[in-house]
Amino acid sequence: MSAKYYTQFLLTDVNYHDGNEFSGVVELSRPMEKDTDVHDIEAVLAKNFDLHRDAVKLVSWSRLH
Question: Is 60 exposed, middle or buried (0-12, 13-18, 19+ CB in 10 A)?
Answer without folding.
Answer: exposed
